[in-house]
Each structure stands twice: as structure tokens, then as C-alpha cells.
Amino acid sequence: MSAIEIPGLDVQERSPGSYRVRVRVHPFFALTATTATELEAVQWGCRELGRLQNLHERLRVEGRLPAVPLTRSKAEELGLAELIAGASGNADAPPSAPPGSAVLVSEILDTYMENEGRELSPGYFSRAKRLRSYFGAMTLAEVTGAAIKRYIEARLQGELGLGRSRFAAYATKNREYQRNRRRRQRGIPIVPRRLSQDLPNPGSVRHELKLLRQAVKAYAVRSDAIRERIGTYVMTHPIVTCALPNAGEPRKRRISDDELTRILKKMKCPRKRAAILLGIYTSLRRSEVVSLRGEDIDWAERVVRLRPPMEPDPERPGQLRKKRKTKTVERDVPLVPEALDLLETLAPPAQGRIFQFAATSLTQAFGRAAEAAGVRNVRVHDGRREALSWLHDVHGLTLEQLTLFSGHTEVKTLQKHYFQPSAAKLAAALAGKAPARNIRV
């Protein structure tokens, strides 16, 4: 007996390699079919169930819906037998090919990134590129549960690309990437490294398959014609129903004052050093830090006002709208004394941007400095976790108060990904000996 329970649909295994499917919508007579696999049985049943429900609604609106159950002979008298059984008139014949056999995965991914992808971050495009290289030549019908399982296994074993290294810093990874790129251009074979610390995280594979799932669902409702053709089929497709890899444990890395001192001393640009420090003091994201403007600082209230990023409005040429896909929440962020002192030394303009570089440039400078300083497994975003945890350790702020800094609408997100309190610092604060920041640049 099938584990899938859909009213009006019944699937039974008759013998190994044989499944019997029965569809019934009152008052019509039942339709049956025999298939080789349970998936084909469910797909056929869902398709016919949707068709009969549409026919039921049409007859009801037309006032032609029978009030009593129909037999096949009675339906023939009323001229409904062919409508109920389908154009072929043979309900026992399973479909020759599933609807997804005419749809390429490359088309699904391309249309998704061209439409919904315009509001996604750059990381989604690299995921889509990897999915396209593996599944792109397949049809949707060929993306079976076994194919998805093979992808997961190959991905986790590093056969389709390595993951983020916990040891190599940004500069090392970038040099290796550029070196391999030149080798590919010259036709020189590349032997990928197989270091255990470089294997992809299950959470990364989960995000990739979630992207494919979202793309398939979006494609199924792209138009009325596509919805009628494959809408029901997609509901039971393996990419929609399969279990995804575990999300993995959240990152817990905190940066010590000594590590920050070593990294900042290796950064050549003083403005980028200041940007990193400002993120440490305020818990702002790198994009939020570099987007700050002089008019955003309220010296009297000791706060900085964050504005949501803007983007061109496609419906109103020449005008802007709030960017729809952004993590930045419009809010006032309190400034601790260290942040105020730092901003005063920067002498920000009354109007205009304080930092004249992009967020990616800040990440690259930080990665190169971390490698030069010998600090491993560290990222710019770790400063956000350090800032929020430090505010609790030293100042005793509650999770609700920390949301004023972080901008999270749900406390559980803040607690899961950023809240990593230090027992030693909290004990020192309780004893009246709260440790001050000891970052030297």
C-alpha cells in the first residue's frame, strides 16, 4: 500500500514490478491503470485526478453534473463516457511518457535565475552554475531519486568541486584558483586536491538542492499552459519530495582581541582597518558598514541610522525602490563609546559615503591580512558574532536588547547563529571587572 494518501487516489502493489492505481471522483465511475513503478502510478493518478476534478467543476457550473453515481453505461447514455475516461477512451493505459520528459533542467534553471534570480545574492548564481553543469543536459523526468542521491554522494566526496577550506585563507585559495584557471586555458590537466577539510559541507549541498527545488516549483507555475501540463506532476517529483541533507551545525567561531590585533596590523589601508573595527563595535554586516553615510550618524542621540539599499524600479523608469532581497533592516543602531571614538577619528563628511570601497574589497583585504598574520579559519562575518556576544559578556545585554544591534526580527535566529557568550568574560563582569577591548592597531 502506498504511503502517499490523496483523497480519491489509491495505489496498491499487485506484484513485484506491478502497481495498480485507482482514481475516483464522485459521481463519476472509477479509472484504473497498471504501472511498473509506484512513482508512475502516483503521477498518472494525480494527473487523472486533477482532470476529473476540473471536469466535475465544469459540469457543475453548466448544470450538467449528475446527482447519482454514474456507471460506464449510464455515462455513455449521457455522452460523458469519453470525457470521464479521457480522449483515448482507455483508462487502463498508463501514459507513454511523463510530462517532465519534454522539459530540460537547464531551461528550468535559466528561467529561474533570469526572473527570481535577479533579487538573489551572488552565491545563488554559483549554486545554479554547479547544478546546471550536472543536471543541465537531463530532462526533468530523468532527475530521479537515484540521480539526486548520486549527486549528493559525488558532491560530498569532492568530485564536483571542493568546499571552503577551514585552514587556507582567502589569498591562498585565490592564488590556487587563478593558477588552475591558467592551466585550464592552456589545456593542462588539473589534479584536484582531496583534503578532508576541503570537502563540501552537507549544508552547502542542501542549499543547492533547495535552489533546484525552488526553480522547479517556480517553473511549474510560470504560465497557465505549463501549470496544466506539469503542475500535478511536479507535486510528486523526487526533487520536491526527497529528503535533503542535514543543515549542519551553525558556525561558532569568535575572534579574539589578539587575533584582531595581528590581522589589523597586516592591513595596509587605514580606512579598511577602521571599517573592520567599526563592524566589531557595532555588529554591522560588511555591506552595511561600507554603505554608511555622514548624514546617517546622529551624534546627539549616539546612534547610526541604517537605510535599506535601493535598486532601480522596473515599473517606474528613472526612479528607485527598496531592494526586495536584502538582509538590511531599516533601524537605529546604538553606538558604544569605542564606536563613537572611532567615528570621530574618521572625520566623516556631513553628506556622502564614509568609506569609498566595496564590501568585496574589504573581504579580500581582510583575507590577505589574516593569512599574513597566520590566523586561520576566520571570516569578516565572524566579527558580527564577536560583537554581539561581547555586548552580552561585558555589558550584560539581553537577547531582546541585542536585536537593536543585529536587526533580527526573530530572537531564535540571533541565538542560533550569533550568540556565543563567554563564561570567563561574564564571570569577570559579574565581579565588577568587565574586561575592556584590547585591540591595538
Describe the structure using short key phrases:
single chain, 441 residues, mainly alpha, DNA polymerase, domain 1, hpI Integrase, Chain A, 3 domains, 3-stranded antiparallel beta sheet, 19 helices, 8% strand, elongated
Describe, in plain words, how this protein is organized in 3D:
With 441 residues, the protein is mostly helical. It folds into three domains: 9-96, no CATH class; 101-161 and 200-241, DNA polymerase, domain 1 (Orthogonal Bundle), CATH 1.10.150; 257-430, Orthogonal Bundle (hpI Integrase, Chain A). It has helices spanning 38-62, 72-78, 81-85, 105-115, 122-135, 145-156, 170-185, 202-220, 224-235, 238-241, 257-266, 270-282, 286-290, 337-346, 359-373, 382-395, 399-406, 411-417, 423-430, and strands spanning 9-15, 18-23, 31-35, 297-298, 303-306, 310-312, 320-322, 331-334. The strands form three sheets. The protein has a three-stranded antiparallel beta sheet, with helices on one face. Strands 4-5-8 form a three-stranded antiparallel beta sheet. A two-stranded antiparallel ribbon has the order 6-7.
Topology:
Blueprint: E1 9-15, E2 18-23, E3 31-35, H1 38-62, H2 72-78, H3 81-85, H4 105-115, H5 122-135, H6 145-156, H7 170-185, H8 202-220, H9 224-235, H10 238-241, H11 257-266, H12 270-282, H13 286-290, E4 297-298, E5 303-306, E6 310-312, E7 320-322, E8 331-334, H14 337-346, H15 359-373, H16 382-395, H17 399-406, H18 411-417, H19 423-430
Antiparallel strand pairs: 1-2, 2-3, 4-5, 5-8, 6-7
Helix pairs in contact: 4-5, 4-8, 5-8, 8-9, 11-15, 12-14, 12-16, 16-17, 16-19
